[in-house]
User: Fold these one by one.
Assistant:
Number 1:
Amino acid sequence: MAVKAQRQLMSGNEAIARGAYEAGVTFASGYPGTPSTEILENIVQYKEHIYCEWSPNEKVAFEAAAAAAWAGARAIVTMKHVGLNVAADPLMTLSYIGVEGGFVVCVADDPGMHSSQNEQDSRHYARFAKVPLLEPSDSSEAKEFLIRAMEISEKYKTPVILRTNTRVSHSYGIVEIAERKKNPKKIAFEKNPPRFVTVPLYARQMRNKMEQRSKELFEEANKNELNKIEWRDKSLGIITGSISYQYAREVWPDASVLKLGFSYPFPDKLIKEFAAGVKKVLVVEELDDIIEEHTRSLGINCIGREFIPGIGELSISTLQKSRAKMEGRQIPAEKPLKYAEQLPARPPVLCPGCPHRGVFFALAKHDVIVMGDIGCYSLGTFKPLSRLDSILCMGAGISMAHGLDKAGEKKKVVGIVGDSTFFHSGITGLLDIAYNKGKSTIIVVDNRTTAMTGHQDHPGTGRTLMGEKTKAISIEAIGKACGIERVVTIDPYDTEKTQKVIDEELNADEPSLIVSYAPCPLKERKRVGEIRWINEELCKNCKMCLKLGCPAIDGSGEKPVINKLMCSGCGLCEQICPFDAISPVEKGQL
Ligand code: SF4
Ligand code: SF4
């Protein structure tokens, strides 16, 4: 695909995808997770050149891409920060073995937890695994750094981490478009056990080589132009990187800056040179004080954490407060946003017509403990459903239900996971239950998509990321193969049968798997059924329908009413109304 030099407006994630294309990448894998998802979604447009896939989880995605790089391909793997925990096992050892073709781990952090269960700082992984870390601060750099990461990876035969965060991944900026580079390597895995087999005999040798590589990378970081000093007023020198660089430039426009783009290994010589040239050193970094601690370890007196918050996202206004505090000025009071008080509250709720609602509603009739998981169904935590008692991480709904049960919890324990989460890391938990004679009830709320991150495909959907039809793996068959004998499928829109099955399975003295099967209506882009309305004359105002927590049912007036524009026609409210006051809207009523 020949392109003339041109400029395009791109998000950071689009730019990384473009960078992968231009760098000559031919293999890309990942697991969806905000804020990283759009990297692979954008790589699909280059599918003539790049094989790409959603893997069942980040570890699998990492290993598949690493093997491609061993064969000489240029490969990337994408994930969010918590996904890197899942892929940490192969990362640690791949750092020993190294790669042949370039291999870049694209990880996106979520400071402020817009869509995550924690806000861990992935920069730690670079030091932990002894691999280089590159951190772009805008879309243009996101593309450029991906290409540079690929070059560094091939030069030093090491995996490289390209770390972004929500603002870099999702903000838009101008990106220069260039031609695709060709990977000169022939794709072929060359057998060489001392190179690829980590039995202790060889692994010890690799460990020593890795140390030598670290020394070379240390020199590289000191001379690499991704780390640069911008001399301005020398009374204050700021060491920063990633999105914090943009904020710092706005708030301290006159200060000198050491911008770290190649941020691990730390460029010690450059840090010392910079510190020696300014009167005071301030470190501005989001989340953990990694650069600050290291700067201090070099014997440099610096300030940072006492003024820069370490929790949540930084922003221009946060740093303006930091600056005021540093300068002993009164911190300006924040002006309330115009009209903010008039905006209606929008509590997080399941969508109208969401199939998970039927399961939570049926569960609400039982005094059980429900171990939840990561996905849309986490919204079942909130009132009025209030039917989720825990969330730890992907797949934990199943294994923790088992642990609680085995610990001697008197109440029946239920584990709830989604379909994508089940394939991601739920299966081994189910094996644990069957193998170790557990008796929890596991419900897979199978809405036929990875809904929370924007409807990506997974092994159960029968479709690949590249748009090809494929085998749709059966959750029920996996359940049986794992040794669970009670496996039952329900239609969550059928309240009576759903209730009956849940009652039966909760009373069973053995483990069971319930698959609640109904596609996400948002993915299907159609209503589940006919729009409902409430006949005011029949309505006795018992408020039973409000217990569903459907945002289409408005309970703010004297009696509940259904917002016909929002109603998805799932029929749950009609089934639970004890006075037959709810029915489909007849033609002409709309
Ligand atoms: S459940 Fe039926 S009767 Fe009760 S408030 Fe809702 S519509 Fe009215
Ligand atoms: S049918 Fe009832 S429960 Fe279903 S979306 Fe419409 S109002 Fe909500």
Note: The chain has a mean pLDDT of 96.
Number 2:
Amino acid sequence: MMMTAPKQMRAWISRLDRTLILAVVLLSSVFPVELFSNTHPALKGVDGQYSGKQGQVLVVKVKGEEQATEVKGTFLKRTIPFFREFRPGEPAGYIGLLGIDMQDEPGTYELAVEVKQGEQAKQLSFNVLVAKEKFAVEHLTLPKAKVDLDEKGATRWKAEQQLVQQALAENSRLKLWHSNFVEPVNGKRSGIFGSVRIMNGQPRNPHNGEDIGAPLGAEVAATNDGIVRITVDHIFSGKGIFIDHGLGFYTMYFHLSEVLVKDGDLVTAGQIIGKVGATGRATGPHLHWGVKLNGARVNPYSLLDLPFKNGVTPPTTATIPSPETAPTPEAAPVRE
Ligand SMILES: [Zn+2]
């Protein structure tokens, strides 16, 4: 055994050498050029750590960079545009709203941020820990025809999906919203964002928004400034409105009894855009409120929790609080 030890050690050292060389090669291929003076090549995640649960919105801040012409992040193949943020008495910086999709797998992922200054670019790297949210499980009983679409219904549904996709394909390049969000209707929040749905005994897509119970005809307000991208009357969503708030941020309002805006209308925060109803696949009057943020389906109430509303400084490392436990399905009087 003693005789073989040096040989084993040599093999071990040689493996270590190879690993080190490989690491250096990999790092230099990831960070090939030194573009900005006085900066050093960054290692992954060295610029900050963030954490949040599935369905939450994180506020990511890039300080300084006053000369930057564009700041853009990439997270799980989704593009996160950053916007300039000015606050009295604070250094200028860029803010990005990072949406964690309700079905992003728990784990740690990189948020890579590119800061462009004319022809030059530098990379920042953040680690984002995605934590599991406890979503409710809902058992729903609906008329068979509303769960199992016949051929005609399935064709209609497909065409409607395509229409919406086309309408939302191009994000407005301007940020239209401001930092104060409005709850669209005064009502009972059912807490079923992200819930796993069993319809007539069959597992279906999780619930991608929040349902707010309110009387038929209650006024529904736009949560923030934006442009009405498309109004619909679709098989599942019923009468609905999609508002584009700019930079890939959309809100949706479904099951309305009345739509009071038209495609292309500019709306402001708090403006009444429709009335609560039970159109489409709904078992009673309520508003289905949904949010898509750069492709991520997030809990709409995380907008109301954003730490920069009313001029409050966003923390550089933010975790948006959310209820620890998902409410029981019994607490949700309304569906779909
Ligand atoms: Zn719903």
Note: The first helix runs from residue 5 to 30.
